[in-house]
Amino acid sequence: MTDLPQLELDLINAIGGATTVAEVEAVRVNALGKTGVISGLLKGMGAMSPDERREQGPMINGLRDRVASAIADRKAELEAAELDARLLSEKVDLTLPARPRRKGGVHPTMQVMDEMVAIFASMGFAVAEGPDIEDDFHNFTALNFPPKHPAREMHDTFFLKPDPETGERKVLRTHTSPVQVRTMMSQQPPIRIIAPGRTFRKDSDATHTPMFHQVEGLVIDRDIHMGHLKTTLQTFIARFFELDTVDARFRPHHFPFTEPSAEMDIRCDRSGGQIKFNEGTDWLEILGCGMVHPNVLRSCGIDPDEYQGFAFGMGVDRLGMLKYGMPDLRPMFEADVRWLAHYGFSAFSSPNPASGLS
Ligand code: DAH
């Protein structure tokens, strides 16, 4: 004959001693599971005499009910404790500062363009734009490239398929100079604009990519001369490289759209493997420039006897490479996140002349 009070005591002790929900569950299976002790006692009632059953039945049922409710209580208690512990361990302190995890960034080309825009804006230039797909007139003819002139080939132009009706072949603009034409044809002087944008040429090596970026500049007014051009560009280059002054020279060159034309070089020293500006005996070519050719002014409906101007064009990516020490141009447009993480800029610090450029 089972000692029911002893069994109850043992079970209640086991339930009280359980420290996890799983332990309580083990006690429940032992007592009330299919082959559990109490289940065995309940089954045994079938074989009892009516008198025995009348006496034992209420005791066994009472035992079953008390043990079941003790198990339910202990389970609820432990579940609440486990939840409390989990909430405590997963607590989020919203007052903690965010961890600096830089995922995205500004591409160096965009950074450099923003720097250029900031500098020229402070000198009173507005930003102008034109389409990437240009017609022959804006990319070449209006810029004084003679028809069939080899200069058109010189640019390694990407030509689009000829228009089936007109036979016209559009081009991917080979430079940002067509924006000069668009601006002069739509605005009256005085004009003072820069035009940053994409340009395209069939060219690919360490310093050339088929798509690259230029910033064009154009100033048209009365009595504009080379002195304005030189001061503007020297001031710009000094600010861009964050130098007080630059030792520059303007070397005669040829562009169809300017006369005279020049390339601007700055003095540098490359002996230490790194470029140092304003030192040494080397010259680094930085940009092309010149006085706007009278034919270009005429093509755009401006009287060259009344207005003159200067223009310039420079490679944004190339200047970025020089400023930020990138050895190769090609990875700039390969979208490799490791390269971008290394050379990219924070999106939270946009360049401006007051807080600094870079
Ligand atoms: N368009 C020229 C190029 O792509 C650069 C250039 C030179 C632009 C002289 C100008 C300029 O506006 O005056 O190489």
TrEMBL record:
Its cofactor is Mg(2+). Signal peptide: none annotated. GO terms for biological process: phenylalanyl-tRNA aminoacylation. One of its GO terms (molecular function) is ATP binding. Its EC number is 6.1.1.20. Residues 119-331 form the Aminoacyl-transfer RNA synthetases class-II family profile domain. It holds the Pfam family Phe_tRNA-synt_N. The keyword Magnesium applies. Keywords: Aminoacyl-tRNA synthetase, ATP-binding, Cytoplasm, Ligase, Magnesium, Metal-binding, Nucleotide-binding, Protein biosynthesis. Mg(2+) binds at E259. Coiled coil: none annotated. The keyword Magnesium applies. PROSITE patterns: AA_TRNA_LIGASE_II. Binds 2 magnesium ions per tetramer. InterPro entries: aa-tRNA-synth_II (IPR006195), aa-tRNA-synth_II/BPL/LPL (IPR045864), Phe-tRNA-synth_IIc_asu (IPR004529), Phe-tRNA_ligase_II_N (IPR004188), Phe_tRNA_ligase_alpha1_bac (IPR022911), Phenylalanyl-tRNA_Synthase (IPR002319), tRNA-bd_arm (IPR010978). GO terms for cellular component: cytoplasm. Its main location: cytoplasm. Tetramer of two alpha and two beta subunits. Belongs to the class-II aminoacyl-tRNA synthetase family. Phe-tRNA synthetase alpha subunit type 1 subfamily. PANTHER family: PHENYLALANINE--TRNA LIGASE, MITOCHONDRIAL (PTHR11538:SF41), PHENYLALANYL-TRNA SYNTHETASE (PTHR11538). This is Phenylalanine--tRNA ligase alpha subunit. The lineage of its organism: Bacteria, Pseudomonadati, Pseudomonadota, Alphaproteobacteria, Caulobacterales.
